[in-house]
Amino acid sequence: MVTKKITITLPEELVEAARGLTDNLSGYAAEALAAKIRHALLGQELDRHEQEHGFFSEADIAAAEGELFGEKTSAGAA
Prior knowledge:
Shape: elongated
Helix content: 55-70%
Radius of gyration: 19 Å
Order of helices and strands: HHH
Strand content: under 5%
C-alpha cells in the first residue's frame, strides 16, 4: 500500500493513551481510521438494502447474530 504523510491535530490525552498501547502510532491510527471507514461503508450498505427491500425483521437480525456470534442460549439453559 502506498502511504502519504499528513499532519493531524489530536487531543494530547488521546496521543498519550495511544502511545501507551503501541510503538507504531501511525499504524495504530491507520488501523483505527480503516475500521471507521469500514463501519461507515457497512452502514451505508445496510441503509441502501433497507431502502430497496424494507427493514430487517427480528428474525433477520437474530439469524445474522447467530451467524456472527453463534446461537444464543436462553437464560437458565445449561
